[in-house]
Amino acid sequence: MEKSEIQIIVGKRIKELRIQKGITQVELVGRMRGEIDPTNISRMESGKTNITIYQLYRLSEGLEIPMKDFLDFELPEK
């Protein structure tokens, strides 16, 4: 599996969790106390950026969920 494929899967998971919480990307940035541009959230959710562990930590704080929830998915079979 390519790195970009995993980025897309994780990004979709981030978006799914954010939508479940009923918040916008801009609201998520506010919950993360700024210091991140809303376009960065968009790039993460679309899989266009390689998310760091620290970014996942900050997202988990903003969404008030455990970090492990971002990785709660099955990889597609080859």
The average pLDDT score comes to 91
How many helices does DSSP assign? 4
CATH superfamily: lambda repressor-like DNA-binding domains
SS-based structural class?
mainly alpha
How many separate domains?
1
List the uncertain runs: none
Main beta sheet strand tally, sense and closure: none
SS strand fraction: under 5%
Apparent shape: globular
> Approximately how much helix is present in the residues?
55-70%
Number of strands: 0
Radius of gyration: 12 Å
Termini separation (Å)? 8 Å
CATH topology: 434 Repressor (Amino-terminal Domain)
What's the helix-strand series?
A: HHHH
- In the CATH hierarchy, the architecture is Orthogonal Bundle
Explain what this protein looks like in three dimensions.
This protein has helices spanning 3-21, 25-31, 38-45, 53-63. The chain is globular. The mean pLDDT is 91. It has 78 residues and is mostly helical. The protein has one domain (3-66): lambda repressor-like DNA-binding domains (434 Repressor (Amino-terminal Domain), Orthogonal Bundle). 58% of the residues lie in helices and 0% in strands. The longest helix has 19 residues, at 3-21. Pfam families: HTH_19 (PF12844). InterPro entries: Cro/C1-type_HTH (IPR001387), Lambda_DNA-bd_dom_sf (IPR010982). It comes from Chryseobacterium elymi. This is XRE family transcriptional regulator.
